[in-house]
Amino acid sequence: MHPILNVAIIAAKEAGEFIINELENVGQLKIEVKGRNDYVSEIDKIAEQIIIKAIRKYYPDHNILAEESGKHTTTSSFEWIIDPLDGTTNFLHQLPHFSISIAVKEKGKLMHGVIFDPSKNELFSASRGNGAKLNNYKIRVSGQKKLQNSLLATGFPYHDFDYVDAYLSSFKEFMLQTSGLRRAGSAALDLAYVACGRVDGFWEFNLKPWDIAAGALIVTEAGGIVTDFTGDDNFLKSGNIIAANPKMLQNMAKVISATVPKKLRL
After folding, report:
1. Per-residue pLDDT tens for 141-172?
2. Helix axis angle, 42-58 relative to 3-22, nearest 10°?
3. What is the pTM of this model?
4. Are 225 and 244 in contact (CB under 8 A)?
5. How far apart, in whole angstroms, are the C-alpha atoms of residue 171 and residue 163?
6. In the beta sheet, which residues pair with residue 35?
7. Which CATH class is domain 3-138?
8. Is 201 helix (H, G, I), strand (E, B) or coil?
């Protein structure tokens, strides 16, 4: 295992243990509203500091991009991208489906990724060129090639509703062509589930880098493809993402092209 991936795993597990221990105290938490339907608790902030402390112990000079505390800039060629609690709304409702997501870039390229679901004790991980794992077992994306009989995951718009009509158009078309759609509330876990074949594909609009960086690498290392809505690899910047095996991604991209206006696909 690469030393950086090992540190990411240590950090994710330490944060996950803290988060699970605090789950029963949700009613006493201080909650801040960052925007419409966009919440942050003191748990998010403390978990993020646990992760950063673990990273700094081994790599004090690395850059960090974290959801709650923003950029910690150095001259290093490495950047850690952190979501300390992906699925905060689920956590605040004691719905046990949330995760810690940690990715590492080197010279702008995703190199390592970890997604940890502390409720189920499931650890998804990958390093570039070494495949993807779930709890140390190799994983692969599904072999489903057609939309018919497929199961897709997505995320509903929850704070930016400028593109809701386009999203609903794509949602309707996928609903008509597949055997089912799932919206579970953690984009990181949606991508992890694509990687291990639990769902056949995932699409969503307007996500942040910390939502998808680790998951994107894990999917590609599991044999899948991740693109933005134009077929390029600009998803970390645009926030628009499709992830699936190669053939399924082609079929999903056709639906996106037919239902989402071009200006919203860029």
Report:
1. 999 999 999 999 999 876 666 778 999 999 99
2. 150
3. 0.95
4. yes
5. 12
6. 38
7. alpha beta
8. strand
